[in-house]
């Protein structure tokens, strides 16, 4: 396990899912890329779910009645005010809910490797936990440029190419 990241990985689906160690590498690379703009260390829960659970959570929290690739639930409204959970020495960033069925379908449709798209969704989700968004063109450009650099450092191609 990476020394800067702690991952609580939950599998609530039958699909193959990235390992805790792989997730820790992806999250640590994202935090490394952010440098002083991020917390440097962190704890994250990543839950892998079936499409029905993804759809239910997406409907409840985003009012979109369909499954989605990744949902992010930040632990704090302000990423500068992260808390540390009892028994931990790292700030709690929040929860990611990833639906492998959607991620793998998108990867096939986009001609990407399954692993590269899983990495992209994890990096994308972590950035959301840390306050990044893509609601405006400027926000999208900033977030995408970080994703491209992180994925490149991990050996994956530009997900937007």
UniProtKB/TrEMBL annotation:
Cofactor(s) named in the record: Zn(2+)
Free-text comment on the cofactor: Binds 1 zinc ion.
Principal EC category: hydrolase
Keywords: Cytoplasm, Endonuclease, Hydrolase, Metal-binding, Nuclease, Ribosome biogenesis, rRNA processing, Zinc
Cited InterPro entries: MetalPrtase_cat_dom_sf_prd (IPR023091), YbeY (IPR002036), YbeY_CS (IPR020549)
Localization: Cytoplasm
Gene3D superfamilies referenced in this protein's UniProt entry, alphabetically: Metalloproteases ('zincins'), catalytic domain (3.40.390.30)
Binding site for Zn(2+): 124, 128, 134
Documented EC number(s): 3.1.-.-
Superkingdom to which the source organism belongs: Bacteria
HAMAP family hit by this protein: Endoribonucl_YbeY
PANTHER family: ENDORIBONUCLEASE YBEY, CHLOROPLASTIC (PTHR46986:SF1)
Cited function: Single strand-specific metallo-endoribonuclease involved in late-stage 70S ribosome quality control and in maturation of the 3' terminus of the 16S rRNA.
Entry's family note: Belongs to the endoribonuclease YbeY family.
Name of the protein: Endoribonuclease YbeY
Organism this protein belongs to: Guyparkeria halophila
Gene name of the encoded protein: ybeY
